[in-house]
Write a structure and sequence with these properties.
Shape: globular
Radius of gyration: 28 Å
Number of strands: 21
Helix content: 25-40%
Distance between the termini: 32 Å
Bound molecules: adenosine-5'-diphosphate, magnesium ion
CATH topology of the largest domain: Rossmann fold
Strand order of the largest sheet: 11-10-12-9-13-14-8-15
CATH superfamily of the largest domain: P-loop containing nucleotide triphosphate hydrolases
Number of domains: 4
Length: about 700
């Protein structure tokens, strides 16, 4: 039995409650746990002698506890734990506040290691609330060397997570290395078991780098293997030839309420050209938020329907799928085209008013265009005549999920649908090609005419009332407003605004004359749906929300996007939010509420004031911070990579060559079960 597949509940000190917390981080099994990598390390590699401690520095000391006690402070509000620790050079005082349990954990005579800030009082330098760890033989994991820092969730501490990971590593022993020996040798890659241990608890910078390199290689290798297998799979398949129905398409576009931009026309033409051939298309349509990708997709779907073939449109969230459904139904009302909707909570067919008991396969049989969430790739769904698959916000899906929709859902053995993926992520062409060779790319750089750029302003706390004045003015003009908060629930730990609290406050105090709605990921799909449609219909004027509105929602009447604790979001994400407004003809505003006004965050936010195009923004951001950091945000979700940098083109090439060679050496196909399982794992995207 593979230990790695054990659930985390089977580990010591993990009960139901803790398992739920780990689950929030996507950690379900032992394997998830040891593959949950740190994002940063504290360097405690040097041990300081007590006599050398200096106030204002951070230091690491090991010594013996001479005494320890907890007392109540004079004003009775604080519990203060004080200890004296000695080493060969001297004695130092240690103070912790409101952690009385420490005095139970550590006893006089214990050997401990301390790491943290050194302050000074009249007695000289002392440790103020340092991290501590008893030394019980062996290596200590919290306070010596390079100490890992992980992304956490409420109620889970660094210390706990480190403990769980280190225990799991001990229990697992040696993680079996699945990478073929030949590839390892050829690329001088470190051992897997060693690398996993090193990435969590590195000996030094050098071995950390080596471990990272190996694990990054793994990610890119699997990605490339996937891409190559898909390519190989596609190369022996054909797609339906979809004729260009020029007359009808011209009639459709001439009846649109707007003229297509030149970039939209070009992209449409490129796609229609591709799908008229029997070589399966794999094309990526990149266009900034609001550039009008949906209509391009719709024209291609219409053209496919006119050929009596089906189109599937997959969106990452229910809200978005529903919105696409409504848009398609509205724009195609005069055409004899049936449109279906399939999400977890809703099944509909545009030609049927009694959707109550519709079965999914009735929809996939009857509809010409089937719109849905990842519900579309369930095992049991089959299509009548699928010829074109469109994936919106493709970066939100895993590679395999995407592959599934084209390879498995073709209705005949060797026929697959054409694939169009759409994204607002400005992926540079060089990188996209390094990732998937043979991918064709269409880019819409231009935004529709008549759009005014969104006026973007950084607002500090003293200017908050002015921001509310601006919003009230907009509300008086009957416009609508988004307010984004980083958290759902209040959290004293981080001090950031939570959607629930803000909703209460704004509803009661600031916008009491207007209908305010609250949207967050913990609501049921039905509730989310209802709130969103009330906002779309204009019943709700102010929508307070967490990140769930992030993708594609189109509400032309919304003119203000206010983002609380803006510095907590990545530039790419902020730009996505901003793209939610400025979609109609009215002047729109993006208000970035800055809580942390350090130079670094202000300068970053200033980029948004300065640049209105996502492509420009990606470029400056790249210059600003170097590829690793920037695209950490961007690539989050574009294939799900934990460690590897998509912009490391050298490593990408190495991985690609290795994948090609591997396929060449395994002509019978993928026999290796472990690698197969690994590939399946790659798809674990976390959709809300
Ligand atoms: P995105 O590329 O972000 O998916 P959408 O397709 O949702 O953008 O389009 C945003 C809005 O712009 C929609 O309301 C759409 O109807 C409108 N739109 C699309 N193309 C044009 C155009 N050429 N001129 C004016 N408005 C357009
Ligand atoms: Mg869109």
């Amino acid at each position: 039995m593979d230990l790695l597949k054990n659930k985390v509940e089977t580990l010591p000190r993990i009960g139901k409650a803790m398992a739920a917390k780990l689950k929030a981080l996507g950690i379900l099994t032992w394997e998830d746990l040891i593959y949950y990598f740190p994002f940063r390390y504290d360097d405690f590699s040097l041990i300081t002698l007590i006599v050398d401690l200096r106030s204002g520095t951070r230091a690491n000391v090991t010594g013996t506890v001479e005494m320890i006690a907890t007392k109540q402070s004079a004003n009775r509000r604080l519990k203060i734990t004080e200890a004296l620790v000695s080493d060969s050079s001297g004695l130092v005082k240690v103070v912790w506040f409101n952690q009385p349990f420490i005095a139970n954990n550590i006893k006089s005579g214990d050997k401990i290691s301390l790491a943290g800030k050194v302050d000074e009082d009249f007695t000289g330098p002392y440790f103020s609330s340092p991290m501590y760890e008893k030394i019980v033989g062996g290596q200590n994991i919290h306070t010596s060397g390079l100490v890992p820092n992980y992304h956490l969730t409420q109620g889970l501490s660094q210390k706990q997570l480190r403990f769980f990971i280190s225990e799991t590593l001990k229990l697992v022993g040696v993680v079996e290395d699945w990478l073929p020996k030949l590839i390892k040798q050829k690329n001088d890659l470190a051992d897997l078991a060693w690398s996993i241990k090193e990435i969590h608890f590195p000996q030094d910078d050098k071995s950390l780098a080596k471990a990272k390199y190996r694990l990054s290689f793994d990610e890119l290798f699997l990605l490339q293997l996937e891409a190559q297998l898909m390519k190989q799979g596609l190369s022996i398949k054909t797609a339906k030839m979809i004729d260009f129905k020029g007359e009808e398409i011209r009639r459709f576009t001439s009846q649109l309420p707007f003229d297509l931009t030149a970039a939209q026309k070009k992209a449409t033409w490129e796609i229609l050209q591709d799908i008229s051939s029997k070589k399966p298309m794999t094309r990526l349509l990149e266009g900034d938020v609001g550039s009008g990708k949906t209509i391009v997709a719709m024209i291609c779907a219409l053209n496919t329907s006119l050929n009596f073939n089906q189109t599937a449109v997959m969106a990452p969230t229910e809200i978005l799928a529903k919105q696409h459904y409504n848009t398609f139904v509205k724009f195609l009302a005069d055409w004899p085209i049936k449109i279906g909707l399939i999400t977890a909570s809703e099944k509909k067919l545009s030609s049927r008013s009694d959707s109550k008991r519709l079965k999914v396969n009735e929809i996939t049989e009857a509809a010409d265009i089937i719109i849905g969430t990842h519900a579309l790739i369930q095992e049991k769904i089959t299509f009548r005549d699928l010829a074109l698959t469109i994936i919106d916000e493709q970066h939100r899906f895993g590679v395999l999920q995407r592959g599934e929709l084209i390879i498995k859902k073709g209705n005949q053995e060797n026929i697959v649908p054409h694939l169009l993926s759409m994204t607002a992520t400005p992926i540079p062409r060089t990188m996209a090609l390094a990732l998937y060779d043979e991918l064709s790319i269409s880019i819409i750089k231009q935004s529709p005419v008549g759009r005014q750029p969104v006026e973007t302003k950084i607002i500090t706390s003293s200017e908050r009332p002015k921001a509310y004045d601006l919003i009230i003015n907009e509300l008086k003009a009957n416009h609508q407003v988004f307010i984004i908060c980083p958290l759902i629930d209040p959290s004293d730990k981080f001090g950031a605004k939570s959607a629930k609290e803000e909703y209460e406050r704004l509803n009661k105090e600031i916008f009491s004359d207007y209908e305010v709605g609250l949207l967050h990921g913990k609501l049921s799909a039905k509730e989310k749906e209802r709130i969103m449609s009330d906002f779309v219909s204009g019943q709700i004027k102010v929508l307070v929300s967490t990140a769930v509105v992030e993708v594609g929602v189109d509400i032309p009447n919304a003119t203000v996007m206010m983002i609380e604790s803006a510095e907590r979001f990545g530039l790419a994400q902020l730009h996505q939010y901003r793209g939610r407004v400025g979609r109609g003809e009215n002047k729109s505003y993006c208000l970035l509420m800055a809580e942390d006004i350090s130079m670094k965050s202000l300068e970053r936010l200033k980029c948004l004031e300065q640049y209105s195009s996502g492509f420009d923004l990606a470029e400056v951001d790249l210059k600003f911070r170097g590829p690793g950091e920037v695209f950490g945000v961007l690539q989050k979700g574009f294939p799900e990579l934990k460690l590897a940098n998509l912009f490391d083109l050298d490593l990408m090439k190495l991985a690609k060559d290795s994948a090609k060679e591997f396929i060449k050496n395994n002509p019978a196909g993928l026999e290796d079960q472990i690698i197969k399982a690994k590939l399946n794992n790659q798809t674990s995207v976390h959709l809300e």
